[in-house]
Amino acid sequence: MKTALITGANKSIGFETAKVLLKNGYYVYLGSRDLQRGQQAVDTLKAEGLTAVEVLQIDVADEQSVQQAKENLSQKTQSLDVLINNAGILGSYDQKASDVSLATVREVYDTNFFGVIQVTQAFLPLVQKSDQGVIVNVTSGLGSLTLHSDPNWKHYHV
Ligand SMILES: NC(=O)c1ccc[n+]([C@@H]2O[C@H](COP(=O)([O-])OP(=O)(O)OC[C@H]3O[C@@H](n4cnc5c(N)ncnc54)[C@H](OP(=O)(O)O)[C@@H]3O)[C@@H](O)[C@H]2O)c1
């Protein structure tokens, strides 16, 4: 059975992605920074008959949490077929570069940027043990330099 880890999968896009992968025969490690919220999501999926799923506690912005999650997952599986870096935050949207607080910028970078790097580095050895390992980075138009450089883009002035 193929395996997948999705970060921030206790709700929204991550949760729906878990559902799709489960319906396609994957065993899903449902990443959640809060164990209780993650377990609730797992219970919801199981109630729908999607049983090949368990919660993996992981806060992508917390180095210790990422390392602990890596150790926990390594004890459960020899390889990881799909890693989906889904967890992400907007910060206090919308905000201007001219007055956004540095604390907000740091929080967003710790999650959306450094979080992706540290999660990828932590799980890469497991992905490399898969015959067809895949890493998916979920992003947004808000991360596009091309769009941000286009004065006609609806968020250009945000
Ligand atoms: N929704 C959109 O229109 C849209 C458009 C383009 C791209 N995206 C991208 O899609 C991804 C998911 O977005 P979404 O709309 O589903 O967002 P969402 O509803 O806000 O859900 C975000 C998920 O990430 C988790 N998360 C946040 N910080 C985390 C951290 N430090 N460690 C682990 N998990 C963390 C949240 O956990 P908690 O429940 O604990 O907060 C939640 O499970 C993001 O990367 C986002 O940039 C979304």
Automatic annotation (TrEMBL):
Keywords in UniProt for this one? NADP, Oxidoreductase
Q: Which InterPro entries match?
A: NAD(P)-bd_dom_sf, SDR_fam
The answer to whether keyword Lipid biosynthesis applies is: no
Q: Does the keyword Magnesium apply?
A: no
Q: Which domain of life does this protein belong to?
A: Bacteria
Q: What Pfam families does the record tag this protein with?
A: adh_short
The record's family statement is: Belongs to the short-chain dehydrogenases/reductases (SDR) family.
Listed name of the protein:
NAD(P)-dependent dehydrogenase (Short-subunit alcohol dehydrogenase family)
